[in-house]
Write a structure and sequence with these properties.
The chain has 621 residues and is mainly α. It is built from 18 helices and ten strands. The chain starts with 10 loop residues before the first strand and ends with a helix. It binds the ligand CC(C)C[C@H](NC(=O)[C@@H](N)Cc1ccccc1)C(=O)O. Residues 34, 173-174, 177, 181, 329, 332-333, 336, 492, 496, 523 line the site of the ligand CC(C)C[C@H](NC(=O)[C@@H](N)Cc1ccccc1)C(=O)O. The site of ligand LET2WEIY has 12 residues, from helix 5, helix 11 and helix 13. Belongs to the major facilitator superfamily. Proton-dependent oligopeptide transporter (POT/PTR) (TC 2.A.17) family.
Length: 621
């Protein structure tokens, strides 16, 4: 197949072979990212021994940084190294970061007294912070480049294939993240160590590190097959200078005597290339359309916070298995893996058959509406929970009344989540004597256990300990969260998968990665809005906060649909080709332009000294 730049690539079933390496790379990279992220807060809390607040804020800072760094990667790719080299270099940085995380989690390195706890915590903290910084730089930096690089592999005539590629790309993101969020918590729960056995965070970080190395190797293997668009110099510098010149030139010509121009960017025509101005107009048009989009991510990213907290007040007993609150999040990638193929092969073709033109911007609007609907469902579930008056966390609150005349130490084993019931084992110890007993709990319940004065420690105490249920278990089932997950995920498919492709198709050739980064920036801003709204609104009832978010998104959705109505789709390649054809004429024009500019500058100088006098002079010239 010969693509837009005359590059000849191998094809399989109408698709360039090179994209196989790109989607496998994405799968491994997302496995690496989400796998590491899944155990990060627990690593902060239990390995570095940070409190909940510090752990949560460092976690969110890291996630926000991951969506801010794409702009850096995009500038480097589009202006300097090109996407291919940027992906290679930043993937190396990323893999080093993951290895640093894995090493930072080996307690034996500083466990000089071999008691199972690190003796030099500073070493572990510093190494893990360096690791996280490198990971944020790497994952964020390559993110806009990989998607845009994949899009580059298609020729202009392969629009349909390119759309399918973005769907498959999204499937790989979710396939990788689903697998890793299941696997790494299992790895973390293992015990490992050289001198003493501890929870195996090093393995939980080590496997994602290995997957990142695999991602890099796979990407390099495909090297000979890629179409590699060349960077066109410091494009972002030129863009900024051109916009700056247009603004200042417009300001200098604000007087009514100067004829207005069709677009404010046209004021840059006196100095800059028409092609560059046309490309900037395309980018600005799309970026303007992006202004309302962060609100979608504001709702979307609350799956990991508010919805997980909601799940902690619900009953996770699904018969064969007990689902932990944070495990509910895996419903999202599972639904993505089912909904993307259904949408692509059934829903969208059906809509088309009905004669409806379901354009990308219409899809995104419906996506926003569905996300708002998801929050209405969340509010209804919340009301149900509030009515049932079960506000406790799934960690069962337990107290003991000691009837013995000596102090008894009580400790507990971990709760086993994959059994039909939640079973906890308690160890009672006094001096050298100890005994153990187990009890089953319901989510959210609270118990008081009585240790009788006659209890003989050292023997079996299973039968001797009696308990009273203080608070009944949570009665609202976690399955009730499924509708809200369904709507938010259907919204994600319509909004995010479409937006990814839209950002690529509407971007000029030399700013594809930049526009992808602009798209990812809406995710970062959305995350900041969560913090602001939650802080400012401070609503007493959780369900009212859900309704507030749903209403905000609905308003934004209406604004966006109006903006979308006035948006005209463009074909950047066609526009660029038109300007390139006119380049000869433009060269001739340039001298005239330069002359005109000099004239106007002279005119401005004279304007400042004596307007009337100048007017006289001009007519004489
Ligand atoms: C936010 C990103 C632009 C999109 C993408 N994320 C997803 O596809 C999520 N559905 C993945 C996910 C996985 C597990 C739990 C929650 C979400 C990405 O990561 O690129």
């Amino acid at each position: 197949m010969v693509n837009k730049s005359g590059f000849n690539s191998k094809e399989v079933c109408g698709y360039p072979l090179s994209i196989f390496f790109i989607v496998v790379n994405e799968f491994c990279e997302r496995f690496s990212y989400y796998g590491m992220r899944a155990v990060l807060v627990l690593y902060f809390k239990y390995f570095l021994r940070w409190d909940d607040d510090l752990a949560t804020s460092i976690y969110h800072t890291f996630v926000a940084l991951c969506y801010l760094t794409p702009i850096l990667g995009a500038i480097v790719a589009d202006s300097w190294l090109g996407k291919f080299k940027t992906i290679i270099y930043l993937s190396i940085v990323y893999a080093i970061g993951q290895v640093a995380m894995a090493v930072s989690a080996i307690h034996d390195i500083t466990d000089t007294d071999r008691d199972g706890t690190p003796n030099n915590m500073t070493f572990h903290v510093v190494l893990s912070m360096v690791g996280l910084f490198l990971i944020a730089l790497g994952t964020g930096g390559i993110k806009p480049c990989v998607a845009a690089f994949g899009g580059d592999q298609f020729g202009d005539h392969q629009e349909r294939q390119r759309r399918t590629f973005f769907s498959v790309f999204y499937l790989c993101i979710n396939g990788g993240s689903l697998l890793s969020t299941i696997i790494t918590p299992i790895l973390r729960a293992q015990n490992c160590g050289i001198y003493s056995k501890q929870k195996c965070y090093s393995l939980a970080f080590g496997v994602p590190a290995a997957l990142m190395v695999v991602a890099l190797v796979v990407f390099i293997v495909g090297s000979g097959m890629y179409y590699k668009a060349k960077p066109e110099g410091n494009i972002m510098g030129d863009v900024c200078k051109c916009i700056g010149f247009a603004i200042s030139n417009r300001y200098k010509h604000r007087s009514k005597q100067y004829p207005s121009r069709e677009h404010w960017m046209d004021w840059a025509e006196d100095k800059y290339d028409k092609l560059l101005i046309a490309q900037i107009k395309m980018v600005l048009k799309v970026l303007f359309l992006y202004i309302p989009l962060p609100m979608f991510w504001t709702l979307f990213d609350q799956k990991g916070s508010r919805w997980t907290l909601q799940a902690t007040t619900m009953d996770g007993n699904f018969g064969a298995i007990v689902i932990q609150p944070d495990q509910m999040q895996t419903v999202n990638p599972i639904l993505i893996l089912t909904l993307v193929p259904i949408m692509d092969s059934v829903i969208y073709p059906l809509i088309k058959k009905c004669g409806l033109n379901f354009t990308p911007l219409k899809r995104m609007t419906v996506g926003m509406f569905l996300a708002a609907l998801a929050f209405v469902c969340a509010a209804v579930v919340q009301i149900e929970i509030d009515v049932s008056r079960k506000h406790l966390t799934y960690f069962n609150l337990t107290q003991f009344v000691n009837g013995m005349n000596k102090p008894v130490n009580v400790s507990t084993s971990e709760i086993f989540p994959f059994l039909i019931i939640i079973r906890a084992t308690f160890f009672l110890q006094s001096g050298q004597l100890s005994c153990a007993f187990s009890r089953d709990f319901g989510f959210g319940s609270s118990y008081t256990f009585f240790i009788p004065s006659t209890l003989s420690l050292g023997s079996n105490c299973q039968e001797s300990i009696t308990g009273a249920e203080d608070i009944k278990p949570n009665s609202v089932h976690m399955a009730l969260q499924v509708p809200q997950y369904f709507f938010i995920t259907a919204g994600e498919v319509m909004f995010s998968v479409t937006g990814l492709e839209f950002s690529y198709s509407q971007a000029p050739s030399n700013m594809k990665a930049v526009l992808q980064a602009g798209w990812l920036l809406t995710v970062a801003i959305g995350n900041f809005i969560v913090l602001i709204v939650a802080e400012v609104a401070k609503l007493p009832k959780q369900w009212t906060e859900y309704v507030l978010f749903a209403s905000l998104l609905l308003c934004v959705c209406i604004i966006f649909s109006i903006m979308a109505y006035f948006y005209t789709y463009i074909d950047p390649t066609e526009i660029e080709a038109k300007f390139r054809r006119n380049v000869g004429d433009d060269d001739d024009d340039k001298n005239d332009k330069q002359r005109k500019l000099e004239m106007e500058m002279m005119k401005r100088d004279l304007d400042r000294s004596d307007d009337e006098h100048y007017k006289g002079k001009q007519t004489k010239m």
